[in-house]
Batch of 2 targets.
Target 1
Amino acid sequence: MTRKKAAITGVQGYIPDYILTNKELETLVDTNDEWIRTRTGIEERRILKQEGWAASDMGREMVKGLLEKTNTKPEEIDLIICATITGDMVFPDTANTIADKVGAVNSFGFDINAACSGFLYALTTGSKFVESGTHKKVVVVGMDVMSSILDYTDRTTCVIFGDGGGAVLLEAHDEFGIEDSVLKSDGNGRHFLNMAAGGSKLPTSAETVANKQHYVYQEGRPVFKHAVKGMTSSVTEVMERNNLNKDDINWMVPHQANIRIINTVASQLDFPMERVMVNIQKYGNTTAGTLPLCLWDYESQLKPGDKLILTAFGGGFTWGATYLTWAY
Ligand code: UT7
């Protein structure tokens, strides 16, 4: 008997209404539209401004839309995995808050904290529950409210990130689905990209607030270098071990951190940009949200059997590549 695969059977994104343009950022920090476009490829990003809304409210919108689209009742969901670094609270997790808000009363859930690689980690984790046959309908959410941890006086970070993300439904499939994943991490990378305070290492105090240690800290150049290397090597590894060459791949779906990273990875792999999903110009870097937002934006162009390689790199460091065949 051949084993069932875990296939994505629906995707639903959510982006907040408020558009923060490069022009508006020029009024907040010493930057300019030209620098942001040429150094990052970003033209605008979305910011969650709805009164009282948090990550779980974005999650609720994604999951509600996903259930509607796939004709699924909330009680049918067995598991919700939420990839995020900006959950509603440090604890409890946000997956179970989403379950409560959508009425997924039979689901259990947990969050995955792997920064920009969170969706890849969560997708792979969710696929194991479906492949094993223990769980039939698994929802994987990838999203972030990066505006909640950004310093809007720091031009090196506030221009890059945005809010949003998406959710996918995983179900068993005879033919298509998640085929293979190469997931990697290197904890030594924590020094280059982090939020220093609020955890057990540096609990919140008046001093940590005054020192702005509750905001994203990033050393851009080393992260850039590692991102190119990590994404290129993990895509190469997953292609090699599945005997794929670049002409077999219909779409590459890279984490949207910087258009120059995407261009460099594609060029090192000699992969044509026409088959690379790009939407960084509209949303910026939504951390765990970029990959599902790409799938959502390009959904109408995908066909059953299409071969996709998703790849990401982020804080941790964490990185990897997932090879999947599209099911609808
Ligand atoms: O998603 C998680 C993983 N994250 C990433 O993959 C991000 C990786 N890193 C990057 O994308 C890039 O390093 C950045 C976009 C963050 C920065 O771009 P860069 O080309 O590496 O710039 P840089 O840090 O080398 O800075 C070049 C110059 C500096 O000025 P000086 O020292 O040359 O005078 C910066 O102060 O650009 C300056 N600069 C800015 N100028 C205008 C930095 N940020 C800005 C800004 N506007 N927003």
Target 2
Amino acid sequence: METKVLPITTESLAEARAIIRDGGLVAFPTETVYGLGADARNAAAVAGIFAAKGRPADNPLIVHICDKAQVEEYAYLTPLAEKLIEAYWPGPITLVLKKRDCIPDIVSAGLDSVGLRLPGSAAAREFLAAVGCPIAAPSANTSGRPSPTAAAHVAEDMAGKVPLILDGGAVEIGLESTVVDARGEYPLVLRPGGITAEMLRELCGGLLTKPQLPTQKPLAPGMKYTHYAPKGEVLLFATAAEGAALLSAHAEAQPLLIASAEMAAELGYADSFIPGKRGDLDAYARSIFAALRLADSQSRSVILVETVPEEGLGAAIMNRLKKSAGVL
Ligand code: TXA
Ligand code: MG
């Protein structure tokens, strides 16, 4: 199959609409990462997503909508969900709610819940409005690989497998949405993201650490799989002393160093990818997946990555880094 990569225009959106209507797949940008979309009401179309990604069938998909009012068509609202929608939609947070029957089982991987998201970026909402249906979409990477934050990353994984990639440039956030179970009295964070646990606690006056009501298990099936893994080995370090020890132990492998400007300077190692200054977590989030993909394109067998404190957005960054290193 030929894969077109097109900027977002009236014409390309019309093409996207026709592909989705006919049960095909379209990759599209959101503020978090690129998604691989199909009509969420069409089980055969959704099966195409699992095939293109090589995704395990027990990992449910997020359903993307472009209007808050659509929530009740697909799920049962709760007071907590209403509060979160009011505060954060459109934006990088997915709400897990009890699903209605119109969502096919393949979308929810057989669970009785569905993850709903109203993306924050104008490009994503233009796409959703143009296709005129709910869009089931995981990140547009091959299962297990780092998520795509640019159209070129999608093409690396999906060329020949999907007819259209809408190119909206680099994404704003770079990490996938926060996934929250909103069925209880307080939020239960299933996947950390840009809307942080601290923000949720502040808004809602509490956080759950385990489900309030008996629910089906596992809660976020996707979290148990290997994720975000480049081909090389990812090794994490916190201090300059640890970094120096790793650099000398792996000198022969010529590792790529991913570190703050300060750390790279301290280590005196030029072969580095520098997301930004120390503490610039937004910059780190935006470029970490691109950095891991760069390491792959350079065939690095070892990738050394400076860690960040696990607070706020740092918790989401470290969740992805630990998974890419195979230590979570
Ligand atoms: O930012 C994002 O969320 C991106 C963009 C494209 O919207 N999407 C994304 O989808 O990251 P995906 O499939 O790569 O990750 C979705 C995560 C998985 O860990 C999945 O198991 C979990 O959300 N999830 C989806 N539906 C769920 C449900 N009903 N219950 C629990 N977890 C769910
Ligand atoms: Mg994903």
